[in-house]
């Protein structure tokens, strides 16, 4: 799965002010990512506000994205949920050949045991021949996918090919790297930790910040992959304020405000999310102008 090395972006879903999907904004966003050098795109990840989208809307976005990309970069489809049977049915129905893999967040709210998480992903793995990337984000799901469970899944199912890690736990990352089978991918799920995770052996990032700053994010990952860590550290520190502002009032409200500043799409989100505060908008405007004006090495 070398085409999933590097910088992938979890695309936001642009909305119009009436709450409908802004397909023109999505088209601009996709072109912006490809022009910025992003290595692959993730459609309908959790950053796409999938919890607020209908089944039909998700299909429309997946199909639109595939048509717009037209094979220029690899595509990953997000399929996650806490109703395993329903999720398996959705994956079995999914037949868009433009997508190379599935990203699936661990079940949220239910707080399953490790055996429950294992059986959930087993059912997904057996429902499709597509490669699957696990997604561990305990701050949002309320439960941690343990190292033992990740390694068990990686060994038991050949189409479980990696994990997007957003646990912010470096002991956890290190033990995954020490025990994983050859070829299993560790992918950063936290922009602020991409550099240190790649120093441990992660192959890249599935980024939020990259929606607004694809060139900088892709270059940071490229520097790390080429062992140019002095240059990577400079970009890392340049992007720290942007990282903070992206998440200070929730994702994707922060990055959507950045995209509005960059004239890519609007800052509209669907309830229960709301736009960032006026104070944060001012900080974002200043930070975007500062970062956008810097020359990429």
TrEMBL record:
GO cellular component: cytosol
Residues bound to pyruvate: 47, 206
Residues the UniProt record annotates as site (L-lysine inhibitor binding): 51, 82, 86, 108
Pfam short name (any one): DHDPS
EC main group: lyase
Metabolic or biological pathway: Amino-acid biosynthesis; L-lysine biosynthesis via DAP pathway; (S)-tetrahydrodipicolinate from L-aspartate: step 3/4
CDD domains: DHDPS (cd00950)
Gene Ontology annotations of biological process type: diaminopimelate biosynthetic process; lysine biosynthetic process via diaminopimelate
Keywords noted in UniProt: Amino-acid biosynthesis, Cytoplasm, Diaminopimelate biosynthesis, Lyase, Lysine biosynthesis, Schiff base
Catalytic activity: L-aspartate 4-semialdehyde + pyruvate = (2S,4S)-4-hydroxy-2,3,4,5-tetrahydrodipicolinate + H2O + H(+)
Site label Part of a proton relay during catalysis, positions: 46, 109
Record GO terms (molecular function): 4-hydroxy-tetrahydrodipicolinate synthase activity
SMART domains registered for this protein in UniProt: DHDPS
Subcellular location: Cytoplasm
This enzyme's EC code(s): 4.3.3.7
Active site per UniProt: 135 (proton donor/acceptor), 164 (schiff-base intermediate with substrate)
UniProt record similarity statement: Belongs to the DapA family.
HAMAP family (alphabetical): DapA
Annotated function: Catalyzes the condensation of (S)-aspartate-beta-semialdehyde [(S)-ASA] and pyruvate to 4-hydroxy-tetrahydrodipicolinate (HTPA).
Subunit structure: Homotetramer; dimer of dimers.
NCBIfam families noted in UniProt: dapA (TIGR00674)
Protein name as catalogued: 4-hydroxy-tetrahydrodipicolinate synthase
Source species: Olivibacter domesticus
């Amino acid at each position: 799965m070398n085409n999933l090395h590097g910088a992938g972006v979890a695309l936001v879903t642009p909305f119009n002010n009436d709450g409908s999907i802004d397909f023109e904004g999505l088209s601009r966003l996709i072109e912006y990512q490809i022009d910025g050098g992003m290595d692959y795109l993730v459609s309908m990840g959790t950053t796409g506000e999938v919890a607020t989208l209908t089944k039909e809307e998700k299909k429309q976005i997946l199909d639109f994205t595939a048509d717009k990309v037209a094979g220029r970069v690899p595509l990953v489809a997000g399929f996650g949920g806490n109703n395993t049977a329903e999720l398996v049915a959705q994956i079995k129905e999914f037949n868009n050949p433009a997508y190379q893999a599935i990203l699936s967040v661990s079940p949220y709210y239910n707080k399953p045991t490790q055996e429950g998480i294992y059986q959930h992903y087993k059912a997904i793995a057996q429902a499709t021949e597509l490669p699957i990337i696990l997604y561990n984000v305990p701050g949002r799901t309320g439960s941690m996918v343990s190292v033992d469970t990740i390694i068990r899944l990686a060994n038991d199912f050949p189409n479980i090919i990696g994990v997007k890690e957003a646990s912010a736990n470096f002991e956890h990352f290190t033990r995954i790297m020490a025990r994983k089978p050859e070829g299993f991918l560790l992918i950063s799920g936290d922009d602020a930790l991409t550099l240190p995770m790649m120093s441990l052996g992660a192959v890249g990032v599935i980024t939020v910040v990259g929606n607004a700053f694809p060139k900088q994010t892709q270059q940071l990952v490229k520097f790390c992959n080429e062992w140019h860590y002095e240059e990577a550290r400079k970009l890392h520190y340049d992007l720290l304020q942007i990282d903070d502002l992206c998440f200070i009032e929730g994702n994707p409200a922060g990055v959507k405000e950045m995209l509005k500043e960059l004239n890519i799409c609007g800052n509209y989100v669907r309830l229960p999310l709301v736009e960032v505060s006026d104070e944060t908008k001012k900080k974002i405007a200043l930070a975007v102008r500062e970062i956008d004006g810097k020359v990429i090495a």
